[in-house]
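Review box. Two proteins, two foldings.
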Amino acid sequence: MIWTRRRLLGTGGAMAGMTAFGGWVRPAGAREPIRAATGGSGKRISLKNLHTGEELDTEFFRGQAYVSDSLNAIQVLLRDFRNDEQHAIDPKLMDYLFDVAQHLGVDPAFSVISGYRSPQTNERLRERSDGVARHSLHLEGRAIDVRMAGVACDVLAGRALELTQGGVGYYRKSDFVHLETGAFRTWKG
C-alpha cells in the first residue's frame, strides 16, 4: 500500500480529532511554529519523515501519561517507508528526542532518516552495508536516525552523549545521528 498524505490523513480515525488533543499532520512544505509544551507537564515533538515528506507536530505526553493518539500517529510516520510495515514505537524514544532538544536549548523538531525497520528491510540494508546491525533496535521501534535543522550532527551527538540515556551513533559521512533506548553506548559510523 502506498501512503499518500491523503491516505495518511484518512487512516482509520487515528488522525481524526488530532487538533483536539494537540497534534496534527501537516502536508510537506507547510511551515508552522512548534508550540511550547503546556503547563510544564506536556511534551511536544515535531517530526518530518525525509522519505515521505510527511510531518507531524504533536503533544505526545500530557500530565502524567503518554497520549495514545499521538503515539499512534508517530507509529504511522515512523513506519518502514519501503513496505509500509508499522511497529509500536517505544515512547521513551520520544522522551529521549525531547530531552536532547531541551539539552540543546532548541525546539524538538527532527528530520527522520529512519525509524522502524522491518526484518526484510534490515536484512537488505545489512547486505549493502556493514554499518547495519543484525539485531538493530530499529526492528523493535527503539531506534531512530535523525538530524536537526540548524544543529550540526556532531553537536547533536555530543549533547545526546552528555545525557547518557541510551545508545548514540554518529555517522559523519552520512550526516545523521542514531539514537536508541538501549543501554548507554556510543560509536561512530
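Next protein.
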Amino acid sequence: MRATESTTVLLVPKNDFVDLLRKRPELSLRMLGSMSQHLRVIVGLLDDLTLKDMETRLANWLLKQCPRPVSAHPVEIKLDRTKRVLAAEMGTTSETLSRTLAKFRDQKFLRVKGNTIVVMKPLELQKLLQRHLGEL
C-alpha cells in the first residue's frame, strides 16, 4: 500500500509566462540547461533499454552506483527502491532481475542481502561490461 501525498497543481497562463521569460531571459537559459540535463538522462536510459541485454544493463547500473574511478575494493550499494521498481526501470521483470543478480552472485561479482548489494569485484564487473559492449 502506498502513502498518499498532497499535490498542488499550478496553471500558468501561456502569455504571462512568455512575458516573464522576455523580461528575465536568464530564466530561459536555466530552463534550457535543466531540460538538456533531463534529455541526456533520458537518452542514456533509452540507450540502456534498447541496445543492451539484461546482464549488460545490470552491470552498467551497478557500476554507475560505484565511486569513480572503479577500484578492486568491494562497494556496498543500498537500494532506495524495491527490486520490482528497479526491474521496471531496467525494462525487465523482477524475476529476470533476480535471475541476473543470482548469476552475478554465482560468478562472485556480488553479494545480495535484503536491500543491500555488495559489488565484490567492481573492476572485474567493469571488464565484463566492456566485453558485452565490444570494447575489449
